[in-house]
Every structure is written in structure tokens, then in C-alpha cells.
Prior knowledge:
By secondary structure, this protein is α+β, with helices and mostly antiparallel strands. It contains 11 helices and 7 strands.
Amino acid sequence: MFSHFGFKDLVDVILVGMLLYYLFLQVKISGLRPLFAGILIFLVIWVLVSQVFDMMLLGSILDQFVSVGLFLLVILFQDEIRRFLMSLGSKRGWNIISKLFFPADKQKKDRSYYTALVLACMNMSKTNTGALIVVQGDIQLGLYEQTGEIINADISSRLIENIFFKNSPLHDGAMIVVGKKIKAAGCILPVSQNPNIPKHLGLRHRAGLGISQETDAKVIIVSEERGKISFASEGRLKLNITPEDLQQLLLEE
């Protein structure tokens, strides 16, 4: 059975395993893990019925489902597929590919402006000022920047606090930070549909989690009701963190 199993076949199996694992991580972020497990179970049943036990009637019925399965998968996992393609075509995707063939020493990036972000969030937390700050990663956020007002100003804690001041016209939207610049404010973000989000969290937290599911951005949320700081990254939400924790999370690559 394995007499013709060569090195190319081994690489093929490893790549398929890596792809399935990556897809599992993506659907886990979106809260669709039971759906992913159900699809895998269906495929196992289909193989057993059609190939092993050779059941003609049931096998033909399952074959019809499999024949349109690609279109169903595109419909069910359209957000995950879009996230995968965006990640693959982003700077991060090219960096991963280049590092596989051309390893290089890591260069530390200047993250000194994170101090201003943390200070602003700490002050807004004390005054129960709601805020939603998105720090761009390798995936560009130009699509979301266009939904707000372009600012393109240097980062400062006072400017951030003024933008999210309750009487400011931009305080309800999200601020997008690119590099050392506040690129835009008052931006509209996609809202997460994850059913596991705690019920007491509002739209600001759901939007922060949503953009972290769509991109590799790091998101800071300050609750207007409780004054607590939360952090979202890679589809995961950390609630009630301290300014020290926030600083450490921002510095993590």
C-alpha cells in the first residue's frame, strides 16, 4: 500500500495537514469550530459509505452534496477565506515566505509611541471615556480608514483624549493608528458575530473583536460604562487588563 509513498507524497501530506490546521485556527477565531468539525465528520462518513462499504444509494445521495460542497464552503466560510487571502497577500505573508528561503536577523521596530497610547487609555479609563483604537499590523486598513475622517497626525496622548472626548463628533467611531501616526478617526469597523462574546459587552467591543478577526491589527477598547480596558488580537478578547498589561500586549510580536 505504501510501496510507492515517496518524499513528494510526504511533503504533500504535511502541506495538507498544515492547511487544515490553519483553517481550524481561523474558524476557531470566528467561533465556527463546531461547524468545521461537522464538515470533517461528514467527509469521513462520505468516504466510509462510498469507498469502504460501497453503499450505492446512500453513496449517490452524499455524492450530490459533495459535488456542490465547494460552493457551500465558500458561502459558509467567506469571511475566513477572505482573511486567509488578505493575510497571504499582505506584508506578513511575504515575510513568512522570504524567511523560509532567506533567513535574516530580526530587527527591532521603534515602539516608543505605545507609551502615549497607554497613557491616553489610562486617563480615559479613569474618566469613563469610551474609546476604540486600532493599531495596524501588516494587513493594510485603507478600506476602513476611508469610512472616517483622515487626520494623519503624530501620536500624542492629549490628541487621543480630545478625539474621544464625549462631545467630540469623532468619539463614537474607531481611531486607526499606522506607524507613529493617527491615520484616521471616526471609522466604522466590522462587527463580530461570534456567539461566545459575553452578553454585557456592547458594540464597541464587538467592533474591536471584529476587526481583529478580519486583520492582524491590535485593538484597544476602553469601556464607557465601566471604564475598563480591553484588548483584542487574532480574534481573542482580553477583558479588564491593567495599563502595564496593555503595554506588554502591544509590545508582543
